[in-house]
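Action item from last week, closing it out:
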Amino acid sequence: MERTIFTQIVNREKDIEAVADGYKTKINHELWLADGLQKDAIQNCWDVRSDKKHGKNWECGFLLMKIDNKEVLCISDKGTTGLNGTKFYTPNELTKILEKISNESQRGEDLACFLNSNWSSKSIEEGGNRGRGKTLFLVASQSKNVFFESLRSTDNSYVFGEFYLDTADKQVKFSLHYDDDGKAMLKSELGEKISPITEYGTKIFILNPDTAVTQAIKSGELISFISNSRWETIRKYEAKIFVDDGNEKKYANLPYWYENELKGVEEKEFSPEIIKDGTEYKIKRLVLRYAPNLNVPDSIRGIAIQRGGMTIERIPAEELVKEQGMTDIYGWLEMESKPLEEEMKIRCEGPEHFNFTWTLNPARYLRNHIQSKIREFAKDLKIIESEQAKKNKIQKTAEEEALKLLTPLFKKLGLFGKHKGKRKKKGLSRKKNEPLRLSVPDMEFPRDDKRVNYGEKINGTYVVPINEFGESILVLVRVFIVSADGKTEMLQEKEINLHTGEGPRIGPDEIAISKKYKAGGYSLRARMIALENKDKILPDGVKIEKGTILYERVNQKFYVEINPPESGPFEFQPKGKDDKSYLFEWEQEGDGYIIYYNELHPRIKPLLNDGEGLRDYFAEQGSLLALQIKLEELIADDDKEDKDFTKLVKGKDASAVYKLFLNRHSEFLWSLKE
């Protein structure tokens, strides 16, 4: 009996959806498609660089453009080889090429592999060789339609083509044209404004890109994804990778947290060693850093596992070692290419290049090795952590005790009762707005005294970044809650390219108060940090460099299940800054004031381990600050309660200010000693 053999007809639309689901599962944020796309696209470009040793003249970029008023994403590279390999003109010729790749592991057939799913002509040493990444180009196109052009280094030949999903039979189809015919097709399909490529390399044109991709480009988040995953390539090779949203072109730079010789960081580097006795699995280097005061973003936290110049996965240190302070540890690990890196890729790495399966060897050996080294590092950290905790406790106690000592003066000046009082203040005239700042425009509490009970909500708990700086800047914005005992809850963290004007809302629309919040006081805070160097100076004289805190004066207090305490008008807060002119500064917050002190100042720094000395210094300086604020309030309110101050204001005699302040200050100091 004759047997009929059928070949399965594959629904490629479902294949594309399955690939997309794989990336979505492994990348845990809403812009997963943009993140996955950049990682695969850059790796493909890097693998075909002409100068394998140094990456000289290599560049890769993402350009959002418009053709016939429709958005198109162009991914380009140069300093690369182009889509080399055997030219083919018929399906039979293509089949023979793919058979050779399958049977003989023939390399160099980039063109054939690029146009066919799950085929790759790359070696195992190269970053990607699963043949899946190119499917992501179709995922990224809402119309499932992609054009490409390439100038090949082997024969100086030009090729133009298209691949797309045929919605009728659910198959991915493609066409291609060579040399002059290809250049004519480029003009026909993409218009006269697009000129054929003139340097060896390739351009991909993704038609009608997904909104998540365009959003990531326009917001600046795509360039952060690139910096955070390709930082090793940028650091070692000065690799050039750009994102152009059609208005502005920016290059990815080395994240501040991976630079050398950072201040305030404890670092330990472990030299090359075998990770498991009886094997040849060897690491090149493991670097661990402890940075409790460096504002390390969540996207950098953990130990970055590097392969092929890119970060595959970050393992949180606190998952490996259950010790205090582990959340402030980050670092990276590089592997020897053979056999460890090679086998990690073959046996343990996910096809999306975003994770390893840690239950399989050699990944399990590697995880155990990292864990043991973190424990070793943690022995030193316990000393650091306890010293830091001790210093923090001394500072907090000194701040609280100084406020108690200042209470009689607050009462005498009529400043006591921060949240209560019959007289309603007009408030001081605000300082001039800083050019880079955060606004909390819509925050609303259930009641005026900022008490919030279980089951209630605080609305408008987001911040709006504002840029009146004159040019865009890459920034990290963090919105978080700090409890009275110093514990922090991160609400949202976002890296954006902040254009002039208002940026996007960052943070939740509301905070629902549940029993996870213990009864007590809390503060909603926010901070904006520079992610790039700028040749400009902030109003306080600080030059903008990567890691510079641009703004952090957001401090909205609220009280869970308790009434706000009656207290003086001040709250002391440390804010270290390498600025000789800054000792104290104050900012109005509600009906009171935040008094920031420079813990790096040589007058304060020696007192940080001396509780009594720090308390007395805060009390002495606090009395002068209270007098200054009282004077400012009287000028603003035209208050006549204090005769001496009223006389001072009316007399407009500047020479009398210091005399009155000195008299009142002396009286206060005398009373402290009684």
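Closing note: The radius of gyration is 31 Å.
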